[in-house]
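My current task is to audit a protein record that another person submitted. I have pasted the whole thing underneath without changing anything:
***
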Amino acid sequence: MKKEVKKDEVSLWLLAAIPMLVSILLHTAGTDHRWVSAIVFVLNIGFVSYDYFKTKATKDQPLSVYLSGLILIPLYLYFRAIKNGRQYKFLVVWAALYMFDLAILQMAAG
């Protein structure tokens, strides 16, 4: 039984996973923290904008939801989870990757 990914979910998967995976990869490679932050920030803005402006599920969302995503990705993912019938899988994936990224940072600092 193959489960199909909905078109509206693809942009959320990109937002939840790609910036954090890039951050993990760059922190593992020992890249300067300022560059990692800048790259992840640009990726987050790009994926939030893509999701908000190109997805049918966000058509009736206020602009404040988009602006919240520019500041806090987990808040945006939470608002989208409410809109998607309380599917928190994107928020859980983001949080797990974030915790893994923090662990890598701690190991590098120690």
